[in-house]
Each structure stands twice: as C-alpha cells, then as structure tokens.
Design a protein that fits this description.
Layout: H1 2-6, E1 10-14, H2 17-31, E2 37-41, H3 49-54, E3 58-62, H4 73-79, E4 84-87, H5 99-105, E5 112-116, E6 124-125, E7 128-129, E8 136-140, E9 153-157, H6 160-171, H7 178-194, H8 197-207, H9 226-237, H10 239-257, E10 263-264, E11 272-273, E12 279-283, H11 286-300, H12 312-315, H13 328-336, E13 337-340, H14 348-361
Parallel strand pairs: 2-3, 2-4, 4-5, 5-8
Antiparallel strand pairs: 1-9, 6-7, 6-11, 8-9, 10-12, 12-13
Length: 364
Amino acid sequence: MLRTRLGVCGISLVNSGTNACFILLKALAAQNPGRREVVLPAYTAPSLTLPIRKAGLVPRLCEISLETFNMDPHALAKTVSPETLCVMPVHMFGLPCDMDVVRRATGNPPPFVVEDAASSLGAKFKNKETGAWGDVGVFSFNRGKNLSTLAGGCVVTDHPALFERIEAERCALPELSRSAQRRLLLKLAGLAAAVRPVGYTALYPIVRRYKYTTLHTDFESYQYPDVLAGAGISLLARAEELFELRYRNGLFLLEALENLPGVRLPRILPKTRPVFNQFPVLVEHPEARNTLIDEIARQTGVEATTLYPDPLHHIYDMGYPPDPDPFPHATVMSRQLLLIPCHPLMTEKILTRIVAVFRRIAGR
C-alpha cells in the first residue's frame, strides 16, 4: 500500500527512521567510495547525526530559512562540495521543501538527494508526495509521526542497484523476539489512548516517562516487527482522511494567527500541501513563549512544546567557529520555536481556545 501511494519501486522496512537512515547511508557510501560528507539543516533532530557518524560519514551543516523553516537553498549551493556524498533536505514539521530548488542548488553533477520525510508523510510538492522526489526517501512511523505504529521506519528508492544494497543491510538485521513484540503491542494500545486530549491529560504521569529528555547516543537496529504491520495497514487505509485533518487544523492556525504581533509563522510554498506534524510558531519574547506553554495547558489540557533547545553546532563540536555564529537563523529557531499539536483529534473548539491564548499573551 505504501509503495503504491508513493509511486516507488523499492521499499525496505526496519524498526525506526533512524535505522532506516543508517542502512541507507551504509549502502550509499559503499556504492560511492571517496565521498564522505552528508549535508543537513543546522536545526533538525540531533539524533540524525548518529546514523551519519555510525556509517563512517561526516555531517556538514546548512543554514535554515526563517521564512520556510526548512533548509535554505541559497546556503545549500555554498555548502555542497566535491566531498558531498548526499544532501539531506528535511521536511520539518510536515512542511514540504521546494525540491526543484533543492535539486538546482546541489550543482552539476549533483550528489544524491536523500529526503528526510520522517515528519511529513502525506505532504505533497506539485501533487507528488515528499520522500518520493529525491533519489532516496526516509520515513518514520515512530510515536508522534503523521502515521504512527509506535515504532518503525522505511527507505524508498527507484535505484535498483542501491535498493539491492539496502535490502542486504536490512536482511542482516536481527528480528525482534516474540515477547518484545507483545510488549510493543501493549505500548501501541496505550499510545492510542494517550493521543486523545482528555486521555493525554489523564495519562500524563505515565506518558512523560516515555518522553525523550536526554540526547540519544546510539539506536537499536532490527527488522520491522510483524506485530505492528496490522496497525500500519489499518492506518494506511484511512491515511488520506487523517492527513486532510492535519492539513485543515494547520491552516486554521495559520489563518487565525496571521499578522499577530510577536510571532512569526512559516510561509507555505506554492504548489505544496503540508501535512502538519505539529504547527510551528516562532515567538519573539522568551517570557511570552513560557507563558503560552503554561496557559495553553491550563486552558485546554493540551501540551504545546518546544523542540530541540539548540542547533546542531551548539550541541556537538562539528568544527565550526563559535563567533560569529555560523548559523544564526538556526539559533533563532531553537530559541523561539513553539509547537502546537494539530493531529486529527484536535477539535476546532480546542484550537480556538489556543488562538485566544495567543492573542492575549503573544504580543504583550
């Protein structure tokens, strides 16, 4: 079903998007020896550096745009070098990058384009889904994603030789034990209850134990568990309905918060259909951001969140000089970002209350 939806020939399923990225990069590096650099946005998931380094490659950072909240293609053109193995545009928050511009910015001959569509399943650029534009696409089905089976990820490609290498890497992975699969199934049932606003509030003491509060230093690698496949098939059957609800919720917030003093919203590119993983807002004043988080929780029971507290070059020593800041836009994003849930169970009534909180607090 997913292969048909994306219109690709090859798909390899594993236990997470991080592991999917790892087996892809190992295969890509083996096919293209001599090039070792992977270009990625300066503000993205720190865990994305783990499969890059584990595959024996080197992450290179590209500045982001404070208009689109994605990789800045003008900066990308200056970042690509003869050492570049691949460029990894990340469709952050479910907002599609302009893949035509990304392609042009990579130069000639271009390196491989690896789309990180972990948070953008269902989003489209020119009526074609994200993850299907690049040479390779990576998806995640972990909790919090647009289509979640609690765990899982995949690699998709139309390059036969590369797909053979990826499949060889996947087949070499261990399978999860039956007892571990049963535990996953129980967690999946708990996730289904916790994503509802009322359920989330009631189950928060349990939910918070599963939140990531420290940096990952490694990741597990195993094949996609069969026990989760049924949930994936059921969700794919309803995928368009679920994606449309995310899209509508995001548009509601985009229109309701437009021109509000003290906040910056992403510019939605022409010919794109975002499927908002969460709705991103940049809040100018730190005190206002903290107050918004508290008030939204108090008024609605919904948890608005920040994301990564620092850009990658502040988290890791990546060889960039500290002063002046080489990626100031990425730093601004880390300091100002606030995320509003817009999954299908968020009602217009709840979203309206959230907007009211913003109007009362953000511009003060």
